[in-house]
């Protein structure tokens, strides 16, 4: 479904050194690789999707979060997500889950980068 947006996603696994600066970027996010237990999927929302919203493990339904943001149903249905099962790691352009954030205990990171495709005109 990323073909519609003209984007691709790059996944890079890297070692992480404590105190390493985490880049603040809309298009690149870092996650604690060792906290990921099953294959990740890029998809749109499904019933039961949720985020972890704080370090204590509190959860919020994705649906409730998107409604709180006053997103239309069409926007909610088209929003790309990076998810492990029902747990959303990243709702693109919105937020990432606290459960997968890099911490001082992180050894390996998963860098996920959205890449806008450039189309060249045929002349």
Describe the structure.
This protein is mainly β. The chain has helices at about 60-70, 75-80; strands spanning about 5-15, 30, 40-45, 50, 60, 80-85, 85-90, 95, 110-115. Strands 3-6-7-8 form a four-stranded antiparallel beta sheet, with no helix packed on it. The protein has a three-stranded antiparallel beta sheet with strand order 1-9-2, with no helix packed on it. Strands 4-5 form a two-stranded antiparallel sheet.
Number of helices: 2
Low-confidence stretches: none
Q: In angstroms, what separates the terminal alpha carbons?
A: 28 Å
Mean pLDDT: 89
Secondary-structure element order, N to C: EEEEEHHEEEE
Helix content: 10-25%
Give the helices and strands, then pairings.
Elements lengths: L6 E9 L12 E5 L8 E3 L6 E3 L6 E3 H7 L4 H6 L2 E4 L2 E5 L3 E2 L11 E9 L7
Feature tags:
123 residues, mainly beta, four-stranded antiparallel sheet, three-stranded antiparallel sheet, 9 strands
Quickly describe the structure.
This protein is mainly beta and 123 residues long. The protein is built from 2 helices and 9 strands; from the N terminus they run βββββααββββ.
């Amino acid at each position: 479904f990323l073909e519609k947006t003209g984007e691709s996603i790059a996944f890079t696994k890297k070692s992480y050194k404590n105190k390493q600066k985490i880049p603040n970027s809309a298009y690149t996010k870092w996650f604690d690789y060792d906290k990921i237990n099953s294959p990740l999927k890029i998809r749109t929302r499904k019933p039961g999707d949720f985020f972890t919203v704080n370090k204590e493990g509190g959860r919020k339904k994705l649906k409730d979060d998107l409604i709180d943001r006053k997103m239309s149903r069409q926007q909610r249905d088209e929003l790309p997500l990076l998810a492990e099962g029902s747990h959303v790691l990243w709702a693109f352009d919105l937020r990432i889950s606290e459960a997968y954030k890099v911490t001082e205990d992180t050894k390996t990171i998963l860098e996920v980068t959205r890449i806008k495709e450039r189309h060249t005109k045929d002349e």
